[in-house]
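Lecture notes, unit on binding sites. The following record was shown on slide 14. It pairs a sequence with S-adenosylmethionine.
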Amino acid sequence: MDAETTNSRAWTAYGSHHLERATAVPEVDRFTWGFRPTGPGAEVLGDLAGRRVLDLGSGLGRHAAHLVREHGALVDAVDASPTQHRRATARYGRLPGLTLVLADAVDHLERAAPYEVIYSVHGLAYIDPHRLLPALAAALRPGGRLVFSVLHTTSDGRGPSTTVAPRPEILPLAGGGRLTVRMWVLAPDVWESLLGDHGLVVHRIDVLDAPEESDPLSCRLFHVRHRDLSRASGPRGA
Ligand SMILES: C[S@@+](CC[C@H](N)C(=O)[O-])C[C@H]1O[C@@H](n2cnc3c(N)ncnc32)[C@H](O)[C@@H]1O
């Protein structure tokens, strides 16, 4: 089975698990890019009032709902898992300004009008970057902003890969049990090079460490701009 099929099955099982348990999850009162509420918040996305924004791999949709309610953004939230989508629609299906889309992210990017801002809280690493990044670059306006968080080092101290290949990681289930996913946990310079191949320029990478010094768990938050080719090429002749 290929990595993305494994992930699709795992996220569908994950959503079913939470639907069956009717897991209570609190609202987001502060945007969290890592696994804990530390580090930068929603301000890194800039002024979102009235802007078209895409949440890629939106899961339950809590971050998207927060941006709609607190920042006046118009958010499309795309997720490929039918059970995650069911959780999201049960919770936010009537929130004006939020559109919950059940689709593969690449399929959605290929048919959507371009976005000013695209972000992802731990969604990118489940999708083959060679498949995702061309579609992502085409769906982001020139000058537009891409911000995403990804795993860098696991709790057992395993650092990122230096080659573009997925690897098995554990997705724990509340109440016990675990699923296996296959993730692209890549070194920052590998992400930077992949993004650069599609005109996506990394401006800053934040380190999001676990608050406990004894826990090696660490994420990275990438701040990326779509190169504005019209400006990069300088003034045009008549
Ligand atoms: C770690 S969860 C992200 C949770 C969410 N961003 C949040 O902040 O609560 C990853 C999500 O990515 C979704 N996903 C994985 N592959 C996808 C794909 N190809 N297209 C769209 N969503 C995908 C999964 O279904 C899952 O809900």
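Take-home: Residues 14 and 173 are 7 Å apart (CA to CA).
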